[in-house]
Every structure is written in C-alpha cells, then in structure tokens.
Amino acid sequence: MSNIGAPINRIDAWAKVSGAAHYAAEHPVEGLVHAVLVTSTIASGRVLRIDDGAARQVPGVLLVMTPQNAPRLPRETKDGKIQPPVGRRLTLLQEDEVYYNNQPIAVVVADTLEHARDAAARLRVEYETKPAALDFGQARQSLRTPEKVMAEESDTRRGDLLDGWQAGSTRLDATYTTPIEHHNPLETHATIAEWRQGDDGGERLTLHDSTQYMKGVQRIMAAIFGLPPEHVTAICPYVGGGFGSKGSAWSHVALAAMAAKQVGRPVKLSLDRNQMFGPVGQRPNTEQRLRLAAQEDGSLTASVHDTVAYTSMLENWIEPCGLVTRMMYATPNQQTTHRLAPMNLGTPTFMRAPGEASGSFALESAMDELAHQLGMDPLALRLQNYAERDPGKELPWSSKSLRQCYEIGAERFGWKERDARPRSMRRDGKLVGWGMASATYPTNRSPGECAAAMLADGTALFRSSTQDLGTGTYTVMTQIAADALCLPVERVRFELGDSTLPEAPVSGGSTTVASVGPAVQAAGHALRLKLTGIALADERSPLCGATADGVGAEQGELYLLADPSRRETLAAIVARHGGDGIEVIARTEPGSEKEQYSMHAFGAIFIEVEVDEDLGEIRVPRAVGVYGVGRLMNEKTAYSQLMGGIVWGISLALFEATLIDGRAGRAVNGNLAEYHVPTNADIQSIDVQIVDEDDPHVNPLGAKGIGEIGITGVGAAVANAVFHATGRRVRDLPITLDKLL
Ligand code: MOS
C-alpha cells in the first residue's frame, strides 16, 4: 500500500494553472517600487562617467545607483565571491571595470516600471574601451587550467597512451564543437528585496527571489551585507524553471537589496529577457578533440578526450565534458583534459547536465564514427566495450541496467531492421536515418533536513527549505511523507521554498530527491515512532502497555498487530496532548558509500530522422529512450522529466546557439524569437521506458536523479542518425540545414 511511485497529479498543478501560485516578481508587497537593471554596451573597459541629469528629470525617479555612488560593501566580500562554485564573483558597482557586454553597471528605481525604464534609457554612459577577447580561436592561444572539474581532477590518465594508440588497428581523430547556449526558463530571474528593522533594532533582509537554492541566497546575501544569516530570509515557493541558471545568486539579487536599502522601500528587480543572455550564466561553447583506437573486434585500446571551453575574465568555470569519457567504456589506456580560454563574456555556469550533455555529444558521435570505420553495428561496438565496473574510479557500480536499456530500446525502436549503409533508407522522398547513443548522469546526494508535525485535525505538515523548479518536488515529497507516516497523501502537506525551514541543498545535479527525500522519510518514521511512544505510555490510549514493535500503522491510525480492534487515530493522540501538534526534525546525510561504489544512472537513446535532401530540413519523427534510474518516486513526473530532457536534447542537436557579435561581444539573438527552441511541431513521437532497478546503495529510497540524464546522448543520437540518413558527418552543433547543403 505504498504511495511511492504512484503517478499522482502534481500537488501544485491547480495553483499554477489558476494563477494562485505567486512567482517571485508577483509577490504582493506594500509600498513596492520598481528597479531596472542597466547593463554595459561594451565588452571590455571602464565606466568613466554616467550622466544621470536627464534620467533624474523623469517623474517618479527615486534612485540612480552607479559605480560612482553605490554604497560600499564590506571589503572582504567586495567581489561577492563567497563559496564557489555556487557563490559567484559578482559585479556589484564596487568598481568601474567592465568585463563583458551586458554586465550590470547601474540600477534605476522609480515609482513605476515605466518611469524606471524611461529614466534608464536616458542615462548617458561614457566608457574607456579596452581591447576585448571575443575570438575563441585567439583566446585559446593562452589557456588556463581549471583547479577542479566539478569535484574531480582536471586531467586524468590511465594505462599507456602510446601503447594503446599503436595497438589499435582502426583510429579516429576528430574535433567536435558545441555553441554557447542559454537556459531561458520562462520565468526570468527576479528579486523583490525588503529591509525591516528587527526587534533588536538590527536590520532584517527579506528576498523573494527566483532561485534553485534558498539557503544559498540566504548565506551569500548575509555575507555580502555583513549580516548574520538568520537575519536574511529567502522565499520562493514556486520557480518558473531554472535549469542551473538559478543555482547561483547572481549580481541582480544583491543589487536589488542595495537599491532597497538606498530608497528605504521594497524594490522589485526583474530581468528583461535580453538580460538573461550574459549576467546570469550560460553554457560555454566547447571544442572537444576525441581520439579513439580500437582492435578489429571493436575493443577500445585507447581514448583521449581533450576539452577547451571559454570562461569569463571573472572566474574559471569549466564545462566538464571529459567526465563521461572517464566512466563510460572499458578502455585500458586513456587521457582526459580540460582547458579554459578566457574571454570577455559573461561567466558560464551549470546548464542541464553540464558536461554530460556536451561531452556525450562528442564521445557518442566519435563512437558512431569508429563503428562506421570498423564496419560494426554502433550498438554492438558499445556492447563490446561495456564497462562492468567504473574504469576511471576502479569501483563497482552501485547498479547498472544499461544492457537492458540497450536491449529494450533496440527492440522497441526496431534497430535490427537498420540497413547499415548511409543513404540506404528512404520514405516519401526523404532520406531516413537511425542513430543511437548511450546516456548517463551521476547519482549524487547531499545532507538534508526535514521537520514533520502531526496536527490535531489528522493532517501532517512536512517542511524543508528545498525547491520545486517545476520538477515535482511538492508532489514526490508528499508521497514519501505519506508513505513514511502511513497517511493518505491528501492528508499530508509539504512546505518548501523558505530559507527559515530546515536545511536543504541546492536543487542542482539531479540531487533533490536523493538528498531531501531520505530526510522526509526519516522525519515521517521518527514522527510515527514518537506518536507510538506517546500512545503506549498513555493509559487513555487503547494501545497502552503494548510494545512499539507490536504496533502497526495504516491510514492515519495505529493498531495492535496482535489485536487490530485495539486502535486509535494519530489525531486523537495529538488531541490528548494539548492539540498543538507534535513535531520532530530529522537530518540525513550520505555515508561512505561513494568510496565503495560508483553511482550513475544510465540509458540508451534511439533516434529516427527524416532529411529533405533538397532543403536540408531535418525532422525527428521518433525517439525511444530507455533508462535505469533506480526506484521511481512518481511515474508521471518521472516520465515528464525524462521526456523533457529528450526534447531539450533534440533542441541542442538541431536548434540552439547563442550568436555573439564579434565586435561588441553581445548576444545578437538574445530573445526567444531568434534564440531557437523547438515548438510542438518540431517534436513528434517520444517513447520513454524505465527499467526496474533496485539499488540499495545510492540512498535509502533507492532513487537516482532523473532531472538531467534525459538530455544526455541525444545530441549524438541525432547527429548519428543524420549521418546514417545523408552520409554527412556534422561535428558542429547545432545541425542546421546549411550544414547539409
Ligand atoms: Mo542543474 S544544471 O544541476 O540545475
């Protein structure tokens, strides 16, 4: 009678579709005034002077905050870099230096948004312009080595590379590129900042901020303003998409708070769509050189994956493309490296499956090319190199169902009907191609906390400071809580999105269920035990005198296993104890399992494309994705996540690219009209299958992350299908029609 896994509808669905859900910028606040962020129009140099004479003439203008007059922040946190990588090096008007185009250089506040916009447009900015690094080819002449790649080494080497290379009878040396991409959640970044005086006379800062990390916003803003963390509150019950962009608190959050302090009123600062292209992170472009060598039977004897990506002048942030190559195939001899090409562009950041999405495009394209050279089936080549253990970490997998994923995917797709020769399949005058790729994403876990209270009305309230990015956190946590406490889901409420609630980590790296879920479960168990203990010791309870292991629970009641007629409701126990609710707090954290097992979700993606040979147009009639992702918390939200990932993978393959003007360094397609993403008509059949997988090692729930694996492998599977259809190998994403003509 478990609620876990049940495909129940989203708890927050009604609030969202009816408008009852308030997003950050919609929160009603008394006396609210409006800020507009002003950003640089040069890529490198200094702000010499900002003439605000005309701006100040606009009625209703309350503040023009520039590097000349912005309040000075405590010196030790001048650059806002508190706790990398989630704490970022921000630009908070403490200096006049310009590092990239679209960098915040001023904030204008007025009584209405229109007045603020009008005034912002009237600012006259004088710059001293310096030469800007805007050419990737030139920037890659002076590379930096990142300190770390996620938590791993930047470079790895195993075996003997030269021996391995020479042992191969077939060799591939190919370079793949991926462009800069932007997250573009429907809800742009937005912050409402409000200062109040606390009872002790000290300052209190409240931020309604669209974020993937409540506690991160709280801590970083506390550090920037020199406040104790408990004097900063971040609130965000709903997020209109994040995808990694909202995993960090960027400059505008602190700027809104600085402006609010200056004007003595609550200030709302909502980014324009165009301001999503620079100051709040992006996926960097990558250049990935893959070298593979294999024997005649397809066994890899060497693999080399060297990645160069751009980074900003402010930070060394790397897209960790090589991680997937370290673990995917059983190659005895290997090298992976990561290098950074510093450019005058906004700082790059996490974007859905950072590293795996872009890295798997290169690796899985290269495997397809190698299979073609060997005259082998691409799926057979992958099976030939199937890694029974993690070859990089030299650890057993906690679980791995990739073989079943390949089998089921091939079966459902009809892979064995594939004629291996390129250009051999046609339908209705179009070329047809079939491609496949492996998918993977690591399974991570952080400490989490949850409070659980049983109330006298028979409902329970569970609370944790986690986030719901539209992914289903409210829903699955409610299911886990209901299951642990043996209540129907209708009688459980789960609260999140408030930094005053118990600790929860960033909703990034597909870790929310794995990190917060166990704490919710533990809180439910602890609460049930506490209520049981109270009943057993209370003579007024029908359970009095029994032992805890003789008590069962179902549907909000405790009963004696030996005599089920002796029972009482959880509500009755609370009522007898004053009716104020009985509460527990649980904290859970990972143990040493990471030292014993390598933990990954795996999958296989199969893609069909149709290519119009005259026009170069590519359509994707069919995708089949099969995944081993541990135990599902909710079948419906899980399928949605994986399907959404595949949609984004098709987007990455065919549509997405941010184009940077080579002179000004600004995104020229910084809007949703010209930054192409798929429409409904671009997406056709997507068949998502999930294999049963029991993993006792990843966490107490046995759940692996599902937020990011869906996008991985898809870019390569599409490129491989395009090659099969046309005989043209496109190594540079996106695969736009001009590349086929
Ligand atoms: Mo995700 S890119 O870890 O928000």
Automatic annotation (TrEMBL):
All copies of domain Aldehyde oxidase/xanthine dehydrogenase a/b hammerhead, residue ranges: 18-131
InterPro entries linked: Ald_Oxase/Xan_DH_a/b (IPR000674), Ald_Oxase/Xan_DH_a/b_sf (IPR036856), Ald_Oxase/xanthine_DH-like (IPR016208), AldOxase/xan_DH_MoCoBD1 (IPR008274), AldOxase/xan_DH_MoCoBD2 (IPR046867), AldOxase/xan_DH_Mopterin-bd_sf (IPR037165)
Taxonomy, superkingdom: Bacteria
Biased composition (Basic and acidic residues): 145-161
The name this protein goes by in its record: Xanthine dehydrogenase family protein molybdopterin-binding subunit
Gene Ontology MF annotations: iron ion binding; oxidoreductase activity
Region (Disordered): 144-163
Annotated organism of origin: Massilia forsythiae
